[in-house]
Amino acid sequence: SARVPKSQILTLPELRANPFQHRICRVFSTSDDGDDSMSFEDFLDMLSVFSDSATSDIKSHYAFRIFDFDDDGTLDRKDLEKLVNCLTGQGEESRLSNAEMEQLIQNILEESDIDKDGTINLSEFQHVVSRSPDFARYRVLQL
């Protein structure tokens, strides 16, 4: 029943530098308190997904959940904007202009939104990932 607090988990060097550190804790935590603390089993699940031996399907499933900031089962424009901001940094010097952000999101949707509903579902995300052999090496899913 012991849980490791989120603040302690975030001290891991691999998570400290990860732009998705808070989302990773949220996705793997089973805490009923909403504090993103982890049980030992939660922690092992996280390490298992980040291990080199995890399959691309497992990695893509959890990457999708990490990128789905509002936890609604789809990546919409707001999720994609948050994703881009996490990857490019929040500073003024690295922030994309509104026009650049809109163009990038439009390009992502054109490439990924197979059913043209304006969002990316898990199946569409996994389809895109399957065409990217380097996906498993991306830092989002590496510890």
Automatic annotation (TrEMBL):
Domain EF-hand: 55-90, 100-135
Pfam short name (any one): EF-hand_7
GO MF terms, alphabetically ordered: calcium ion binding; magnesium ion binding
Taxonomic superkingdom: Eukaryota
Keywords of the record: Calcium, Magnesium, Metal-binding, Repeat
Keyword Cytoplasm appears in the UniProt entry: no
PANTHER family xref list: CALCIUM AND INTEGRIN BINDING FAMILY MEMBER 1, CALCIUM AND INTEGRIN BINDING FAMILY MEMBER 2
Name of the protein described by the UniProt record: CIB1 protein
